[in-house]
Design a protein that fits this description.
It is a single chain. The protein is α+β, with helices and mostly antiparallel strands and 329 residues long. It has two domains: 8-141, PurM-like, N-terminal domain (60s Ribosomal Protein L30, Chain: A); 156-318, PurM-like C-terminal domain (Phosphoribosyl-aminoimidazole Synthetase, Chain A, domain 2), CATH 3.90.650.10. It is 35% helix and 24% strand. It contains eleven helices and eleven strands. The chain has helices at 8-16, 61-78, 97-113, 165-174, 179-182, 186-197, 206-212, 223-234, 249-257, 261-267, 283-292; strands at 40-50, 82-92, 118-125, 131-141, 156-160, 215-219, 236-241, 273-278, 297-305, 311-314, 317-318. The strands form two sheets. It has a seven-stranded mixed β-sheet with strand order 6-8-5-9-7-10-11, with helices on both faces. β2 (82-92), α3 and β3 form a beta-alpha-beta unit. It is globular.
Length: 329
C-alpha cells in the first residue's frame, strides 16, 4: 500500500465523511449522536480484522472493507437486530489514496445496501499489518434480542446457507496443489475463493429469528465448535446428523475427492451463517420466512437435555473431530 502521504483530516474528509449517516454529523465532531428507535434495545458488536489473519493483504481493498462490515452485520442478524450504523477504526501501514478510494467505495456500497451508515471512528498509522475494527449497532424491540443462551430440549437445530465454503476457499489460497483441488473446475474454485473473501450476512432473516428462534449465533469459528458454544451456555446438548449439514456442490465434490476435508469444512470457520435453536412448532414458519428472503435453511438435529455429551453422527455412525473450531490462541 504505497502512494503520496495523506493527512488524517484530509483522509477523513475525502474518503469517509461522504459515507457518514445523519448520526455521524458529517464526521466533523468527536462523537456520534444516534437516537435508538422508541421501544427498542440497542445491540452492539465489535470485530477486529488483521491482514494475514482474517484476510490477505493483497486482497482487493473493496473486498476487505466489505468483509470487515459484513462480519459485524452477521452478528447483528443472529441477534435479530436491524442495523443502525457502525464505528470504524482503521490502522494503516501507509496511506495510498488509490487503495483508500477503493476501500471507501466498497465500504460505502455495503453500508448503503445493508442500511448501516458510518457514524464515526478513528484512523491511525501503524508499523504492523493493516488492522480494521468495526463496532456495529443495531436495534431490536425491547426484550426481543435472540440470545445464545435460550436453546431448550426439544428444539430443532437449524443452520442457514452452506457450511465449509470459506474454509475450503482459504485452503485453496494456502495449500499447494493437491488432488482435491484438481477435482474442482474453475467456476467451483472461484466460488470458494469468493465465499472466503465475502461473507453473506443473513440480515434478511433477523425479524423471523426474533419471532421464532429460542437461541441463535453466527458461525464464525466453525460449525461444530460454535454449536457447542451455544449449547454450553444454554445448559443443553444436541444430537446432530452431519449428513444433513448443508454444503455446496463445490465442497461436496472436494470431500468426495478427499474425505478428510469433511472435518475442515465443519470446523474451519468463516462461514458467517446463522445457527439457531427453534421449537418444532415454529420451524415451518421460520422456513417460510427464509424461503421468502431467499435464504436456504436446513434442520440438522435436535437439542437434548444438558449433562449429556453432544452426539454427532454421520450416516448413523458416531463422528468425532480432532479439533472443534478455529482458535486464535
Amino acid at each position: 500500500m504505497t502512494g503520496s502521504p495523506v493527512s488524517e483530516d484530509d483522509l477523513i474528509a475525502r474518503f469517509f465523511a461522504p459515507l457518514a449517516g445523519d448520526g455521524g454529523l458529517g464526521l466533523r465532531d468527536d462523537a456520534a449522536c444516534v437516537a435508538a428507535p422508541a421501544g427498542s434495545d440497542l445491540v452492539m458488536t465489535v470485530d477486529g480484522l488483521v491482514a494475514g489473519v482474517h484476510f490477505f493483504a493483497d486482497d482487493p481493498p473493496d473486498a476487505i472493507a466489505r468483509k470487515a462490515l459484513r462480519v459485524n452485520l452477521s452478528d447483528l442478524a443472529a441477534k435479530g437486530a436491524d442495523p443502525l450504523g457502525f464505528l470504524l477504526t482503521l490502522a494503516l501501514p501507509a496511506t495510498a489514496p488509490a487503495w483508500l478510494e477503493a476501500f471507501a467505495r466498497g465500504l460505502g456500497e455495503d453500508a448503503a445496501q445493508y442500511g448501516c451508515p458510518l457514524l464515526g471512528g478513528d484512523t491511525v498509522k501503524t508499523p504492523g499489518p493493516l488492522t480494521i475494527s468495526i463496532t456495529a449497532f443495531g436495534a431490536v424491540p425491547t426484550g426481543r434480542m435472540v440470545p445464545r443462551t435460550g436453546a431448550r430440549p426439544g428444539d430443532l437445530v437449524a443452520v442457514t446457507g452452506a457450511i465449509g465454503d470459506a474454509a475450503l476457499g482459504l485452503l485453496l489460497r494456502t495449500t499447494p496443489v493437491v488432488a482435491w483441488i484438481g477435482s474442482l473446475d474453475e467456476t467451483e474454485r472461484s466460488y470458494l475463493h469468493e465465499r472466503y473473501r465475502l461473507p453473506r450476512p443473513r440480515n434478511g432473516l433477523a425479524e423471523a429469528l426474533r419471532e421464532h428462534a429460542h437461541a441463535a449465533m453466527d458461525v464464525s469459528d466453525g460449525f461444530v465448535g460454535d454449536l457447542e458454544k451455544m449449547l454450553r451456555v444454554s445448559g443443553a446438548a444436541a444430537c446432530v446428523r452431519v449428513e444433513d449439514v448443508p454444503m455446496s456442490p463445490a465442497v461436496q465434490r472436494a470431500i468426495t475427492a478427499d474425505p478428510a476435508l469433511l472435518e475442515a469444512a465443519l470446523t474451519g470457520g468463516d462461514d458467517y451463517e446463522i445457527l439457531c435453536a427453534v421449537p418444532p412448532e415454529r420451524i415451518d414458519a421460520l422456513k417460510a420466512a427464509a424461503e421468502a428472503a431467499k435464504i436456504p435453511l436446513a434442520v440438522v438435529g435436535e437439542v437434548v437435555e444438558g449433562g449429556k455429551s453432544n452426539l454427532f453422527t454421520y450416516h448413523g455412525a458416531p463422528a468425532s473431530f480432532a479439533r472443534r473450531s478455529y482458535s486464535h490462541f
